[in-house]
Amino acid sequence: MSNKKHDFEFDSGAAFFSNFENSLIEEGAFKVKLTLDKSETMMSLHFHITGSVQLICDRTLEPFDYPINIKQKLIFKFGDQDEVLTDEIEIIKRDTQQINIAQYIYEFIGLAIPMKKLHPKLAKGHFEENEEGILVYSSGTTGEVDSESTPDSDEPMDPRWQILKNLKDN
Predict the structure, then answer these.
(1) Residues 93-102: contacts with CB within 8 Å, 24+ apart?
(2) What Pfam families has UniProt attached to this entry (predicted)?
(3) Percentage helix, strand, coil, to 5, in the chain?
(4) pLDDT in tens, 55-76
């Protein structure tokens, strides 16, 4: 490769993820735009990954598409031996003919996925009734209980609770 900028584009999907053992991602479609800037001493790789991956909601077990839009940078410096310096900088031998970037793309996508996978309907704060009429999730209540709606509000309060209520009111 000559010392200049080189542009590459890759499209991929489920076949890409099937190449990785124990992959957390099975379905998805994405596009990678890679700009490789090569000089005498190093190569700078700029990744722009867009697309979506199919995830399973942790609460409802319903599949949904999670959008991916990632910009990452890797630097490969030329040296005498292969060595990883940081997450973004690696040293490679000068006579290296090929660099497999598939693992880097997979890791970038994997790191973009949130630990808690929630369906977009849940992220908005409500979830409608499903076909069977069962309410799956609703955030209509704030967790506070109105004193009017508590059962047996005519009965005197336990003194232990009254002390705690006084602390809350102060």
Answers:
(1) 101/34, 101/45, 102/16, 102/19
(2) YceD (PF02620)
(3) 20, 35, 45
(4) 998 888 899 999 999 999 999 9
Which residues in the chain land under pLDDT 70? 123-154, 170
* Maximal CA-CA distance, the chain: 86
Q: Give the pTM.
A: 0.67
The answer to whether the CB of 131 falls within 8 A of the CB of 53 is no
Spatial distance between the Cα atoms of 102 and 104, rounded to a whole number of angstroms: 5
Domain ranges of the chain: 5-117
Count other C-beta atoms under 10 Å from residue 160's C-beta. 8
Contact (CB, 8 A) for 126 and 111: no
Q: So what's the pLDDT on residue 130?
A: 53
Q: What are phi and psi of 110, to 5 degrees?
A: -60, -40
* Three-state secondary structure of 104-144: HHHHHHHHHCCCCCCCHHHHCCECCECCCCCECCECCCCCC
Determine the pLDDT at residue 22: 82
Give the pair of three-digit tokens for residue 32: 């990678």
